[in-house]
Amino acid sequence: MPAETAPPMAAPLLDVRDLCVSFPSRGRMIPIVEHVSFTLGERDILGLVGESGSGKSVTAMALMGLIDSPGVQITGSALFRGQELVGLPQKQLRRLRGREIAMIFQDPMTAFTPVYTIGWQIDEQIRAHERLSRKQARARTVELLAEMGVPDPARTADRYPHQLSGGLRQRAMIAMALSCNPSLLIADEPTTALDVTVQAQILELIRSLRSTYGSSVLLITHDMGVVAETCDTTLVLYSGRVAETGPTDALFAHPGHPYTAALLASIPPLDGPRPHRLPAIAGAPPPPLERPAGCAFAPRCAYVHDTCLPAPPPPLVPTGYHPLTAQPDEASAHTSAAGTSPPPVQFAACVLPAEGTPLPARLTHSELSTKPNFDTPDQALPPPTSFSSGEAHQ
Amino acid sequence: MMMALLRRLGQTVFVLFGISALVFLVFFATPGADPTARIAGRNASPQTMEKVRQEYGFDRPLPVQYATMMKKLFITQDLASYVDRGELVVPEIARAAPVTVSLVCGAALIWVVLSIAMGTIAAAMKGTWVDRGLMMLGLIGISMPVFWLGQVANLITQSRYHDTWLFSWVPGLGYVPLTENPWGWFKALVIPWIVLAVMFIGIYSRVLRADLVALSGEDFMRTARAKGLSPTRILLRHGLRTSMVTFVSLFGLDFAQLVGGGALLTEVVFGLPGVGRLTYQALTNLDLPLIMATVMYSAVFVVLANAVVDILYLFLDPRVRDAR
């Protein structure tokens, strides 16, 4: 991506550049993921947000080399600790999978083989990567389950997946993913199939992984609330393209892309008067083959104007907002020493910032409820009403 | 677990009772037909008729008749065939059963091993010519009628090429008891085994392949791949092991109906004096006691085999274990 500068750190854990995934269908290649780029540093949690079909899971599966449909085309680059993942032979990928990059899945019920005990399946992964006896592997399994907050881990290890509750199953899944101490954990909608209280516990667990295990997490979700609670950095995907990326606080406070703004506006407010109707985004995302030449969000965007329509799609440009706490220059000065996240700069694939008319900061809930932001289609920009009220809520 | 087994056994007994009552009613209580005349055979003398009527209690109420029949079948075991001049029916079946069991067990072994191998290889090499070739072979196997295949096998091994080095070992048609001569038993049965197994190999390998291919899209198979396991391990330990649940239920039914007399055509073609052939004879002679006995025998096997399959299920599928 033109606007994105070289990563300031020596080598991020995962550096994805221009990742494209296309599936063949009826003689044509359907681009599911187009030019997705992001970096993930050590101990970072990156949220990959988007609605169904936006290419979140396909991106993750492509990184793991798990897409094996005939004729699929994966281009671009994904450097994991300097090793290219795209096009890596299956044999070498297999050595990475489970050991260096582990994955947890959406539905823990179907993600375990039904005919084996939880413990057996965790042992299996440990023994696939390390030379351990059955006993040693089981000891590690029980230890892991205990660390994941599973009560009575030794007995739970001997139970079958269907005998456990959803939350316990997901904990066991995370235990299995962590069993070989992976440096990257890809969590594909880990909380979607769980009820809200369990969801909070699982998110807490995932958040704690970076301190206890030093893992980086790529969290895939469609839930903005989950992102706000968990992620350092957020990447919003829309129709297979990156719509916006930036530090979570900044992105929530000052969404630079109308899509992000609309997504955030559609979350029911917790305080203030109850809105008559939540703002919704009219229409549906375009099917991959009918994706507009220009901005993919243009047909549904309240700010659409002539510059949005022609090809190529707008590139990622800095939105111009910086969180007040860390100015980019300052941050880059001490990240190299501290080894934390890259400088917090927010990018949006939208023409508005480049045209000098960026989106306003988010309205507070009370203002949102009285004055919906997206019901004025032809107006280019409402004036920035409440510039300072950019607190990341939830 | 113990409770589940006992309950299953109770059900088995109940089902057997139902079947026996049903068969009894069909053959002995059909309105408008006198079972006495049928049991006594064509042109029986009045004395014989009277004797039969006495013996089976046909002049008494139906429940008594049923009880008499069951007693003769299971307790005194002196049910005799009048058509066949007083031949005792139960020992006849006891003689025929080992033949059928030998035939079916050998065939089952062949078809289970080969169909698992073929189905798994085809699923592993999905879309290649190996897959297509194996599935084509399976289809050919299914399409060949067993009696035709048996006759062709006989034609080749018994007459046309019998004198060549390849088939000179093939003994004449018939059965050699295992206890008498194990090697002879094997030689007499190996061709019937293969002939009987061919169709089942076709069916089972195709079913297994389809099952494995469907399973490969399951979440847990994706998990297994994400764990970094080898493709072989994923296919065998996760895919095949899970497919076994379907496979076993299919196998139980087929095996039971074959042991119960379903291998009739193979037995007739190869001159094996098994239960299938016995049933066939009983039906052509309208030998009611023998029909009654063979049907009961076959019902016992089907029901027992189902019970065994259900018990196997308990071991194969932990989800069933808890559902009970």
UniProtKB/TrEMBL annotation, chain B:
InterPro entries: BPD_transp_1_N, MetI-like, MetI-like_sf. Residues 97-313 form the ABC transmembrane type-1 domain. It is found in: Cell membrane. Pfam families: BPD_transp_1, BPD_transp_1_N. PROSITE patterns: ABC_TM1 (PS50928). It is a multi-pass membrane protein. The keyword S-adenosyl-L-methionine does not apply. The chain crosses the membrane at residues 12-30, 99-122, 134-156, 183-204, 245-270, 290-316. Belongs to the binding-protein-dependent transport system permease family. It comes from Acetobacter malorum DSM 14337. It comes from the Bacteria. Keywords: Cell membrane, Membrane, Transmembrane, Transmembrane helix, Transport. This is Oligopeptide transporter permease OppB.
